[in-house]
Amino acid sequence: MAILRASHLVKRFGPVTAVRDVSLTVGEGEIVGLLGPNGAGKSTTLHMLLGLITPDAGSVELFGMELARHRTEALSRLNFAASYVDLPGVLRVGEVLDAFARLYALRRPRERVAELVELFELGPFVKRRVMALSSGQRTRVQLAKALLNAPRLLVLDEPTANLDPDAGDRIRGLLTRVAAENGSAMLITSHNMREVERMCDRVHFLSGGVIVAAGSAAELAGHYGAEDLEEVFLKVARG
Ligand SMILES: Nc1ncnc2c1ncn2[C@@H]1O[C@H](COP(=O)(O)OP(=O)(O)OP(=O)(O)O)[C@@H](O)[C@H]1O
Ligand SMILES: [Mg+2]
User: Fold this and answer.
1) pLDDT band at 238, cuts 50/70/90?
2) CATH architecture of 1-77+154-239
3) Which part of the chain is the ABC transporter domain (predicted)?
4) Using only C-alpha atoms, what is the Rg of the chain?
């Protein structure tokens, strides 16, 4: 069963059509990639799926519910992380996680925060203010926050863009493990094709606001006669 179903989404910003026609699905426990060149409409698509902006046309169904009509219930089962979403900088890491744990009305907020601090190796930073963290450290706080409510769907906009290769590799492993253990599905954007090959069960290619290709990395490579996803990307992006 699809836990996310987007149908024919359209979004215009004045004269710019950011998203022209996007339909996609994410199945239970599936890790799906949304790929495409800068300005293709990936973030705009995610923001519509999250109810942050309203589509000009099309519909979003989450967990079998129409987002427009069951907003609170649908959104309570997912979470989102992106490097461009700022956490309150003056708060300490522990305070931020506590605040979100309470906001999500978790049954055992302290225990859950402690679990995620351990999982993301945030122990040395809990007393530090968010603004005093490096961008990679901040990313780990973002991801810990995003997993607090054990979301059935985790939406991640370039989750590893700020991470060094070692941290990126560890976070990829961790996210994959969390997805497998908790059955959380993920929808991820990334410009790192090796990451996408490693993590994603399926990918959607977006170009000029339209989904131009979809399938597993292997299927797409086969279809485009390419060695790997990097080569598929270049072929798709260059038309
Ligand atoms: N609020 C806005 N107002 C006007 N134009 C916008 C707005 N948000 C996005 N756009 C435009 O919509 C298009 C798609 O942007 P979007 O951020 O979705 O791309 P993206 O695929 O996420 O790119 P990137 O890989 O660079 O993150 C771009 O042309 C962008 O300039
Ligand atoms: Mg983007």
Assistant:
1) confident
2) 3-Layer(aba) Sandwich (3.40)
3) 4-233
4) 18
